[in-house]
Structure formats: structure tokens, C-alpha cells
Amino acid sequence: TDFRPRSARLTAIGALVSGAIERAQTADTHAALVTALQAIVLPELPVRPGLEIAARYQPAGRGLGFGGDWYDVVALDDHRTAVIVGDVVGHGIDAAARMVQVRSALQAVVRLGVPLAEVFNRAAPVIGADGHLIGTAAVAVVDRAAGTIEHASAGHPPLVLVDPAGRA
Asked: pLDDT for 15-31, tens place per residue?
């Protein structure tokens, strides 16, 4: 009896199963990496008395799982809270890396109490903005004690204030 045909089929099936297992392990590793990176990149929202804060991050596409878009909520003092949103040019890991750099720089400048009119100029040297558009951002500071919202933006679409009735 010749076992070569059966052996060849078993070898082919073994190769297919091995490839499927390898792809599944790669997908699991990718999913774990994306989950870990999102946990680092996406901020934990602070609890602010008198202010209801909610955020949703839904990346476009199926690539890395996040990219150049971001948001941040920063407790500045007992009454003031900064909200920062932005988007850097590009997609994938390069955009995510630039996003972390820009987000960190803007957060630091805002935490230092720089007037909003100067925030983007003060952050520019840190993020390497040498006249080339690398993204857009908007910063708003909600002051519950004063009942005001101050804002500034750099290339970002205008902010929209929505009242409790849903009117913009």
C-alpha cells in the first residue's frame, strides 16, 4: 500500500491549520496591543462637581484602532475644567505618535495657566509646528463659578454649545 497521497494530504491540512493558528495568534496580539495603547492614550475623565462629562471615541476604519484624533478633559482647579479636542494629519501609528506629542504639549501649556489666546503659539515649539499644518485643535475652559466658557482654536471646526434641551 502506498501512503504518499494520504501523507501529502495530511501535510497540506497541517500547513493550513498551522497558518490559521498563526493568523489567530497575530490577531490576538494585535487586539491586545490596541487595547493596551487605547488605555494609555485615552484619558480617564475626571469627576467634576456640577459638570456632567461624557466622551466617546470611535476610530474611523479598521486599522490600528486609533489614530490622530483625540480628546482630553483636564481639571484645572476647583471650578475650572479644560476640554481639548484635536486631530493631527495622517493615519495609523505615525499619526497616533504625533497625536500623543501634540496632546501632551497642549495639556501642559493649558495646565500652566497660559491664556487661551496664547496656548497654540506657546505649544508650537514643543510640537515642532514650524509653519507646516500638522493638525487642528480646540480648547475650551468651563468656569462653573463664573458661569463662563472661554475657548480658542487652531484650524479646528467651530465649537458648538448645546443646551439641556438639545438646542445648539
From this structure: 888 888 888 877 777 66
Burial of 127 (0-12, 13-18, 19+ CB in 10 A): buried
Q: Quick one: cell of 154? A: 487652531
Between CA 98 and CA 90 the distance in angstroms is 9
**Amino acid occupying residue 75:** A
pLDDT single digits (tens) 80-89: 999 999 888 8
**Nearest 5°: CA angle at 71, between 69 and 74?**
155
Q: Are 74 and 111 in contact (CB under 8 A)?
A: yes
pTM for this prediction:
0.71
